Amino acid sequence: MTSELITGIAELTTNAGSGPGDVDGNRIADAALVIEDGRIAWLGAAVDAPDADARTDVGGRAVLPGWVDTHTHLVFAGDRSAEFEARIAGGRYAAGGIATTVAATRAASEEQLVAGARRLRAEALAQGTTFLEAKTGYALDVEGEARSARAAAEVADVVTFLGAHLVPAGVDRRDYLDLVTGPMLAAVAPFASYIDAFCEVGAFDVEESREVLLAGRAAGLGVRVHGNQLGESGGVRLAVELEAASVDHCNHLSDADVDLLAGSSTVATLLPACDLSTREPFPPARALIDAGASIALATNCNPGTSYTTSMAYCVATAVLQMRLTIAEAVWAATRGAAVAVGREHGADAVGSLRVGGLADLQVLDAPSISHLAYRPGVPLAVGVRQRGERVTAGTTQW
Ligand code: NIG
Question: Pick from 185, 268, 246, 250: which is nearest to 220 by CA?
Answer without folding.
Answer: 185
